[in-house]
Design a protein that fits this description.
The complex is a heterodimer of chains A (about 220) and B (about 675). Chain A is mainly alpha-helical and about 220 residues long. Chain A has one domain. In chain A, about 45% of the residues lie in helices and about 5% in strands. A two-stranded parallel ribbon of chain A has the order 1-2. Chain A has a two-stranded antiparallel sheet with strand order 3-4. In chain A, α1 runs antiparallel to α5 and α5 packs across α8. Chain A is globular and about 55 Å long. Chain B folds into two domains: about 525 residues, no CATH class; about 70 residues, no CATH class. Chain B has 29 helices and two strands. In chain B, α7 packs across α13 and α19 runs antiparallel to α27. Chain B is globular, with a radius of gyration of 25 Å. Classes of the chains: A mainly alpha (about 220), B mainly alpha (about 675). The interface between A and B is medium-sized, with 33 and 33 residues.
């Protein structure tokens, strides 16, 4: 890579352990393709842990991990020189813009890399589709749901309990080690993220459906 | 030597940490919980750990670890009770134990079989713990040496055990394994997500059949139905046989077998991605191959218990290696264990072993101590519990129907689990009746997912390596490990084919009429043809190749069998049919006995599991068993009370029926 420009990676053949094109792995697959990289996914692994093992065994030469797993499992590899961080998917600011991930302030986000790479555009249907699925996949990934028809009383009890956890003095410290530095939310804020993560506009949806079919032969109906 | 100087002081420190009354109390608590959960078929580490997880946060780390490890460590010990006494595989790790353990119980030697099993478990567990001690410091490169080609080869080694367990007609064994592989492909394909023999209209099938349901259906349902028809006690002599001292003596006489099988267990456990469910089959296959006199296997050879039981406890120690050094869980219960570890403030990974070796080693000590305490308790209990085999079976049957339904329901928490149990159970009944090797079927089923996905993935990675250069490609697919395991596999197949005729994994079976065996073969062939056509219609090559190939080969096997059937006289072993022998002479019919399970299922679909159980118990005990009203009510209350208190403590729900759609009922009727 030349600075933030990923064009130099276009000639490398990458292999990547993936759970499937229609899973969370859609986000990285699309991102790498937008950058003009040739990444061959090896489908059929059961979880990101298996992907990391494939990377460590030298069977794969590119991978991505969630923040928690990266902090625990990949940072030692980076320290030993066995892995190099390329980019994060970024985080969302209050207005829904993609910004640098607060947990990894030194690592550029995909948006920055995309802007610096001539082949990649941060507008248009590919970008919109990528962003929609990134939000669904990452910032809104781990939510707590109660069964349909749960009484308001129970919902309130959970909300109060989670707020109490978030208000703990040592919460920042505890969560940094296991989750990374991300805002946790309840109530209205959580509902807003839920909408961002579950509502994908029709153009983005059509683009992804078409791309999955053309590129990976997967038909969704 | 550096290894020793790192390990020994930390091991000593860890011993100091664990040797406090409080930690020991938590360890014993964990062991007791593990034993009580593990005795219940279908419930295992996941259910037990979920029970203690809420208390983990803020707990003193060593106590928390002792509690969790104590619980996990004894599950493969206690699940032996169900495998040996009832023929119900208590968990996926003790399926192979059923093969010889249950015939021993039928011969009236349950106490001996159990104690031999527990000593083997103890030994395996201790060996696993000691391997963990040193291995954890050096295992990283070793674990990383097992890439996709190596894992594929181990999968094939597992499949090669079919050769020795195929039964009298090897081709039938191969067809059974092929059918198992095909049943294993039902649902969403691992690579591209195409559906095989499933539709989105039946969501249950999308995830495929679970191993618990298939294990129960193939082994437990046919045995329960067969015993119920005979209406005697499990132990035909009504006796219990010689006690636990004998079992220990048997184990001593086979100590080298136990060592070898424990090592197999550790190795298979250490490799992430294989899963623990093959380990008992590889150990059992090895036990049979390495024995001089093979005639008694399948009809109650004590070595058939010692082998798998040594391996499945050793696997737990082995399985902790990748869990701790990579932070990657090898199974569902390990995933929860990692969660619990996080709650007491430790994150598994290289830094934990580097910085907190003493705490890590308390896990080793807990594992070892838990095995000692657990096996000791089980041996003490084995005498009294083995008495169950002397009770008239008809009185046990409703409890067993209750337990296997509840166990099956744990896999997906849906009524579909019960439907699947009955369907697979019917298949199991026919496989048993016509002497198609059930172990071969199960090995095929267990390894189906791995066989398909490792083949696809290794093929793809190898393709990329070969594109880079011939040498790189060869280095990848023909590593010394691959070649070594390949050699083992070939030896295993050759030995298996040469010796399989001496081994009857399920005893001798009479032959008689031709029609029934031919009809069953035609039905199997018809299913395979449909599955083949279904696979052909899939667009994605990655999801299609495996089922198409396997079904094609299996159909060929079936056609050859059919051809042989046309020419053979009806006394030929190919026409094995238990209905013409022992089973046919039983006082009760096959369908009448199976109908009771269907009755329970149908009623559950209508009014929910618990209400259905009440009716089922009373009807069964009054009509089939013919006991007095007082005893009927007492037994019904005992069964339901036991189930409800167990489920209540573990926060388990029961299958709801149509009634629950309309009326809101309090737990346990929900």
């Amino acid at each position: 890579m030349d600075g933030l420009d990923a064009s130099g990676l276009a000639d490398t053949d990458f292999i990547w352990g993936s759970q499937g094109a229609t899973r969370l792995d859609l986000v990285p697959l699309l991102a790498w393709e937008m950058l003009g990289m040739s990444v061959e996914p090896v489908f059929g692994i059961k979880g990101r842990g298996d992907g990391r093992l494939m990377f460590e065994r030298g069977e794969a030469n590119i991978d991505y991990q969630t923040s928690a797993a990266y902090l625990k499992g990949v940072v030692p590899l980076v320290e030993q020189g066995d892995a190099v961080p390329m980019m994060t998917w970024g985080a969302l600011d209050g207005d829904g813009n993609v910004v640098r991930d607060p947990t990894f302030p030194d690592v550029p986000s995909f948006k920055e890399v995309c802007e610096a790479t001539p082949a990649c555009e941060t507008s248009g249907e590919a970008w919109d589709a990528w962003k929609a699925f990134m939000i669904a996949g990452f910032p809104a990934q781990k939510m707590v749901f109660l069964p349909n028809g749960a009484p308001q009383e129970a919902i309130d009890t959970y909300t109060v309990a989670f707020d109490a956890v978030l208000a703990r003095e040592d919460f920042a410290e505890l969560s940094e080690a296991t989750l990374g530095i991300y805002p946790q939310m309840t109530g209205e804020a959580a509902r807003k993220t839920l909408t961002l993560g579950t509502v994908v506009n029709d153009d983005a949806k059509a683009f992804v459906q078409n791309w999955l079919k053309e590129r990976y032969g997967v038909e969704l109906n | 030597m550096e290894l020793l100087s790192t390990a020994l002081p930390a091991l000593g420190d860890a011993f100091g940490l664990i040797l406090h009354p409080q930690q020991l109390a938590f360890l014993v608590l964990g062991v007791l919980l593990g034993l009580s959960v593990g005795v219940f078929p279908g419930l295992g580490g996941i259910a037990g750990l979920s029970l203690v997880l809420p208390f983990m946060f803020g707990m003193e780390p060593v106590s928390g670890l002792a509690l969790m490890v104590g619980l996990i460590a004894v599950i493969p010990t206690s699940d032996t009770f169900a495998s040996v006494l009832m023929g119900i595989p208590g968990s996926s790790a003790s399926q192979a134990t059923v093969l010889d353990g249950f015939p021993l119980a039928k011969k009236g030697e349950a106490a001996r079989a159990l104690s031999a099993a527990f000593v083997s478990s103890l030994f395996g567990g201790l060996l696993g713990a000691s391997v963990l001690t040193f291995f954890i410091l050096i295992a990283r490169p070793l674990v990383l040496a097992f890439g996709l080609p190596e894992m594929l080869m181990i999968t094939l080694l597992g499949l090669s055990m079919v050769a020795i367990l195929a039964g009298r007609i090897p081709l039938k064994g191969v067809a059974a394994a092929g059918l198992g592989l095909m049943v294993g492909t039902i649902g969403e394909a691992g690579a591209g997500g195409s559906l095989r023999m499933a539709t989105y209209d039946i969501p249950y099938l999308i995830d495929g059949l679970s191993l618990v349901v298939v294990g129960l259906g193939i082994f437990a349902v046919p045995e329960i139905v067969a015993l119920l028809r005979r209406d005697q006690a499990i132990s035909r002599s009504g006796a219990l046989g010689s006690g636990w001292v004998h079992g220990i003596r048997h184990w001593l006489a086979n100590i080298f077998l136990s060592i070898r099988c424990s090592i197999i267990g550790v190795i298979v456990g250490v490799i992430p991605g294989l899963g623990g469910s093959v380990v008992d089959w590889i150990a059992y296959g090895h036990t049979v191959q390495s024995a001089k006199d093979k005639t008694a296997f399948g009809s109650g050879d004590i070595r058939g218990v010692i082998g798998p039981e040594s391996s499945n406890n050793a696997k737990e120690g082995g399985g902790l290696v990748p869990t701790l050094i990579f932070g990657i869980p090898g199974s569902g219960s390990m995933a929860i264990f990692l969660g619990g570890l996080g709650l007491v403030g430790y994150d598994a990974g290289p830094q934990m072993i580097r910085n907190d070796l003493d705490v890590t080693y308390t896990i080793v000590w807990s594992l070892a101590l838990a095995n000692v305490v657990g096996a000791g308790l089980c041996i003490l209990l084995s005498g009294p519990i083995a008495r169950l085999t002397t009770i008239r079976f008809t009185l046990l049957a409703p409890f067993l129907f209750m337990m296997i339904s509840f166990a099956a329901f744990q896999s997906r928490q849906s009524l579909g689990d019960l439907v699947a149990l009955v369907c697979v159970g019917a298949l199991g009944i026919f496989l048993r009746r016509f002497d198609w090797s059930r172990p071969a079927f199960l090995i095929g089923f267990v390894l189906s997912y791995q066989a398909e996905n490792f083949t696809n993935m290794a093929n793809q990675v190898a393709g990329a390596k070969f594109r880079k250069g011939m040498e790189q490609g060869l280095d990848y697919v023909a590593s010394p490990l691959v070649l070594g395991i390949l050699a083992l596999t070939i030896v295993s197949v050759i030995l298996g084919v040469r010796q399989s005729k001496q081994i009857l994994p399920e005893g001798d079976v009479a032959t008689g009429r031709k029609r029934a065996p031919v009809v069953f073969l035609l039905l199997v062939t018809a299913y395979l043809v449909v599955a083949w056509a279904d696979a052909m219609s899939i667009g994605l090559t990655s999801d299609k190749v495996f089922p198409v190939t396997i079904s094609f080969v299996t159909i060929l096997c079936c056609l050859v069998l059919l051809f042989r059937m046309m020419r053979a006289p009806d006394s030929d072993a190919i026409f094995a049919d238990r209905e013409t022998g022992e089973d046919g002479d039983a006082p009760h019919g096959l369908w009448a006995s199976l109908a009771w399970l269907l009755f329970l299922l149908g009623l559950s679909a209508l009014v929910g599991f618990i209400l259905a159980l009440v009716v089922f118990f009373i009807a069964f005990l009054r009509v089939r068993a013919g006991v007095s009203w007082t005893r009927t009510l007492l037994l019904t209350a005992a069964g339901l009370g036991f189930l409800c208190s167990m489920a209540g403590i573990l926060h388990r729900d029961f299958p709801p029926g149509l009634l629950q759609e309309f009326v809101r009922l309090p737990w346990p009727f929900t």
